[in-house]
Every structure is written in C-alpha cells, then in structure tokens.
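The freezer alarm interrupted the setup, so I double-checked each line after restarting. Inputs confirmed:
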Amino acid sequence: MATMHDVARLAQVSVSTVSYVLTGTRPISQATRNKVLAAMAELDYQPNAMARGLASRRSRILGLLMPMDERGLGATETAFVTGAAAAASSAGYHLVLSPVGGGDLEDLRRLASQRMLDGVVLMEVQLADERVTVLQETGVPLVLIGRTADTSTLSYVDIDFDQTVREAVAHLVGLGHRRIVYVNHSAATLASGYGPALRTRDAFVAAMTGHGLDPVMIAAEDSAAGGRAALAAAFAQAPELTAVLAMNETAIFGILGELTGRGLSVPGDVSVVSMVTSPQVAELATPALTAMTSPGSALGRIAIEALVRHLDGPAAERHPDGSAVERHQQLLPCALEVRGSTAPPRSRRPVRADQ
Amino acid sequence: MATMHDVARLAQVSVSTVSYVLTGTRPISQATRNKVLAAMAELDYQPNAMARGLASRRSRILGLLMPMDERGLGATETAFVTGAAAAASSAGYHLVLSPVGGGDLEDLRRLASQRMLDGVVLMEVQLADERVTVLQETGVPLVLIGRTADTSTLSYVDIDFDQTVREAVAHLVGLGHRRIVYVNHSAATLASGYGPALRTRDAFVAAMTGHGLDPVMIAAEDSAAGGRAALAAAFAQAPELTAVLAMNETAIFGILGELTGRGLSVPGDVSVVSMVTSPQVAELATPALTAMTSPGSALGRIAIEALVRHLDGPAAERHPDGSAVERHQQLLPCALEVRGSTAPPRSRRPVRADQ
DNA sequence: CCGCTTAGTCGAAACGCTTCGACACCGCTG
DNA sequence: CAGCGGTGTCGAAGCGTTTCGACTAAGCGG
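Predicted 3D structure, all chains:
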C-alpha cells in the first residue's frame, strides 16, 4: 500500500501538497497538481480511510440503522435504502447499513460513540423509542424515518399517513363504497406504539366520519393466517362490507385467499386497496392491487440530504447547548395507483351469510 | 469525548497501561486494572474507532456486499444477513452492509482498498463475476455466497442446488407425478450466468432423467406476469403436466394466479413446489406452499465464521504469494418442508384444453 | 547471594493523514 | 520603491490509538 509519503516523494513535493491536491482545501498550481496526480496513478495510491478519518475527525460514513426482523425487507424498504445510498454517494459519503436488533441498546450507544459514523438515519421509529434517546445522547447527527411522539427537537422524514388514508378512502367512496373495513397491523403492534398503525387508525376514523360513514377497523397479525382471521372478523362485524383497506402488507395475501375461499371475487364482490405498498408487491396479487404507493426512494434520498446538509453546513454545531440547529421535518404522501382490485360495488350485491 | 489520555491521567497510569487493560495484550495487575476501569466508567470513555483502526491496522469491521435491486430482499436474504450479523457480533466484529449497485466496479475497488474493511462477504455471485476479480486484486480477505465458475482459489458457501433439486423432484415423483415442469428464472438471467439458475437447470435435467422422466424447463421473468406466461408456456409444452417446480420466488404468485384462473386447483389438479424459499413467503400463498427451505441464517453464519477464522488465524498472511491459505468451501442443502401445495396427482385428471 | 526469568509498568515511536502557521514569490498600487 | 494582498508551497504539530523496547521489582534455583 502506497502512502502519501510515497506519492509526495515521487512527485517531489511535500506531503501537505499531496493532501491539498486530494482535498482541494488550498489552491495548487496546475503543474504541481498534474505531477501529484501522475504519481498517485503510478503508485495506484488509495488514501487510508482510517488515517483520514482520524486526522479530519470525520469518517464520511453515514449509518442507516435498520431493524432486521425475520420477515425481511419489502420492496418499500429496499427502495428506501437504494434512494438513501444514491443520495449519500452523490454527496461524497458512504452509506453503511447496520442491522440493529431490538435488544442491543448498549451496542447502539457504542456504535454511535465510537465516532465512526458522521451521521445516522434511523428507520422504523416507534412513537416512544429508546433508540432515539440513546442516539441523541451520543450527540451524533440524526435523522429519523418515522416520528416519535414528541418531534420538537428532531429531524425526520415520514409518510403522510393522514393524507394517504384520506385519499384511499376518497377513492373507495368515490366508487360508491359505503361500508369499508380497515385492516391494520396487529393489536400487539398497536399497543407497542407503532406510529404508522396508530396514525392510520386515527386518520381512518377521521376520513370515514368525514364522509358520514362508520369506521370499522380490524387488527390483523402480520401473516397470511392473520389476514384470513381478520377478514372473518370483518364479515362478522360488518357483513355487508364491500371494500377492504389494508395497511398490513403481509396479511393482504391472506385476505385475498380468504375472499376467494368464500367464493367472493375481487373486485366484483369486494374491492381491496393496499396501503403503503410497492408496485412490485401490488403486482404479485391476482388481480394486481390498487395501492397507495409509498415514496420509498424519495424518503431515503430526502433523509440523507437533510443529514448531509447538516453535516456540511457552514456552522454546524455538533453539541449545541440550546442553539438553534435547523430541523428538517417533512411528510410525504403515498400516491394512489389504481390497478385491478377496486371497482364500484355491485349495485344489488347478493347478501351472503357469514359461514 | 474523553480520550485515553484523560483516562490515564485520572487513573494515574500511563497511556499504554490503559491500552493494555483494554486489549489484554500484556498482563496488568488487578489493582491497576480496577483503577483504570473505574476511570473509564467515570469519564464514560469510548475508544475512538478510527484511531484504533489506524494504529492496529485492523478495523474490526466486516463488509457484506449485497446487490440491492428493485425487488428487495426476500426473507431468505434477510435471514442470511441476520445470521451473518449475529456471527460477526459474537466474534467481536461489526458487520456493515454495503449496497453495491451493479455499475460501480471502481467504487467497489475503492471501498476495498481504503482499508476500512477487514474482510468482505460478497453475495449473489455470478458464474463470471468481475467483482470477485476486483476484490481479489485488492487483497482483502473474501468469502463468497455462491460460486464463480472457477472456485479453485476462493472461499465460498453456497446452497447445494444439486441435492435440493434432487429432493424436490424425488418428493413429487414419490407422490406419483410423472410430468413435472421446472419454472426457472428468466432467459436473460440464465444468459447472464446466474449460478443458481444454471445449476438448478442442470440438476433438474439430471434428476428427471435419473427417474426416467422427461425434463421440461420454462424460463420465467421475475414477476407475477412472468409466472403467468410461464404457466401458459408450460401447458403448451406439456399439456398433461401435474406438477410445477418453481425456482422463481417472484413468478410463483403469477403461477398460482394463472392456475386458479384456469380453474385448476392446487394441489388437486396441479402440485406446486417452491425452491429456495423462506417459510414466511411459503405461508403467504393459499394453500401454503410446499417448499425447499433455504438455510439462510446458517449460510450467513458460516460465511462470517470462515472469514473470521481466516482473520484471527495464527499466521494469516494477507498477500500470500503462492502460500497455502486455507479455503473454506461448503455446500448446504435446502430442507424439504411439506405444506399444502403438493398431493398425489388425480388418477384420471380431466384433460383441459389450453385456452 | 547472584544472576535470570517473569509480571507489571512506562515512555516514545509509529500509524497515515489533515491542517495550521509561515514563508517566498508574484504583480500591483500609491 | 516600499508595502500589500494573493497564490502556491512547505514543515511540523497534531488526531487517539497500539506496540515495542526498556526498566524495575520480585521470585527463585543453584
């Protein structure tokens, strides 16, 4: 491994000059620059990231902390990651993903305190999230995807669940549906304070009552079986339902399966809208699902851009004691994409008894 | 941020002593150790990863290079990642995931040359994979998931596709199926030299002819539509088929949809086996799919363990010119898990014309 | 009681880079 | 022609660790 010394010697300049060529911190004449560049090329020189980081006190590495649970990353999360990676790379940063499990809060603190990460994006934030507290304590610049309950001191980017639900409901109501059931995440997830689940619940109630309709919500486990059970529960609570709005991307296949099992057709008998879903997943179903497409890659890009702006910003105070560090707080709506799973309700739908 | 100097001063010892307490490189008396530990606790000291890395020439960071395409990480890949992360963490390493897109070979070289990664695991290896070459050139310790065509100088862990296909076919043949169609990845994927697709193709031909049966393979695009088209093609080529073996996790939902669309029931009319699939995905379908479950987390764990063994090994030469660095080469089979999508074929299946 | 190992500690030299202060040289202005 | 601001370059002092050689004080066999 060639070092800057080697390059400097070969180019017959001082080490600092080589450094200036690399970083552009000070003006260097074209002639010198060329000599140095030539030497670097000849030696196949690559700067040592550690040394650079130590001396400059910035690693140019951004961390994306993603909880990795067993059910994997959907296309939504993936879009998010790729958007973030692209944004980071074009800002001259590396993005590393760190799969942080649930339990290791101490691990998180260590990771953040070791000064290896210039900044951090935290995904899947809960309304009350200890990880946020821990990260804030370490003083590492932080942007959230999702929001905690109190967002006053935080930067975040999140989906505009309110508007998303409102649009979805409007779409169904516009088609003529009156009896719409919302299949949310599980009761346990709701109880744990998972923001999207809670916010969509409230938004659904608001949207439905706004249309003068009765909001029926079912909590479903994140599995196909959960979806089936949810649909059964839905028919029990609202036998005359004509439309299902589902937040639970995993349960939706169970919902569809159960619908078919009951001899009901989609969208003939029941319309289905999937929320916060990627086109890829929506296309998996038969018929392809009308869905609220999440702004995945935009979300990632914006989060990183906010972080970078903070890092590269002029007077970016790291530990401002009360001083006004600018916060970036932004909501992005999902876009309605109509596919084959929604249609006007049958005008005189034959009432089927719940089996 | 407290430094070692601060700790040393507070504990009234030298800096090197603090370092020895931390690393255990040299014996330290219990009394001194306690003083130092107390000082560290009091100052909330966290070693600076950069400085440590610079001085010791090892970052204790392992990279998991994963191509992130638009269709996201399945549960299989996720299991893989979590397995790897757990193994890394218990070996005292951090695991970072780097989403490397397709094009940036130069980027890859830079990443690997910057001495920020002690070792690298590369996922989704193609039979002819330039990334492998690039990484080998940088001299960074490397373990592959998957294999290139020539594996002589490489360490890898991979799925035993041969055995997996053999078992899947045996399961179907054991049930009485004679006419089995294999739905592989797309023709383009095959042409690009994607190992799993090629190896399973060959294994399928071998397994079927071994049973005295005629192997029919269809290439399907990675989408629901691709699955539908594939099924249509399958019926065109083998109208009397009673079983489908699918490698293409994405296409399988299209296959199921098309089957239903044709009025065929699973497993009554046609049995379906999904290969290299996670239980989570298998459960999404109705009925739940009989599948060959991939050894995801074991794969990740083993890859990392092999890498760590190489790094922590006694005389681990980084650039051995011809010397025998031990290679780790291992194949893991997928496990057959029978669910609801396979059954004996109808003895006298009513022949349906292709629509 | 003498040299020899061994446990325990220290000081200083790296590690490979950034960055600060200094300085030389240039062409200008007044 | 003194003085000045700008440009281009250098040397050296860090950045926060690890690690090496050296030193001291015991402990011990002969």
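Quick read of the result. DSSP finds 14 helices and twelve strands in chain B.
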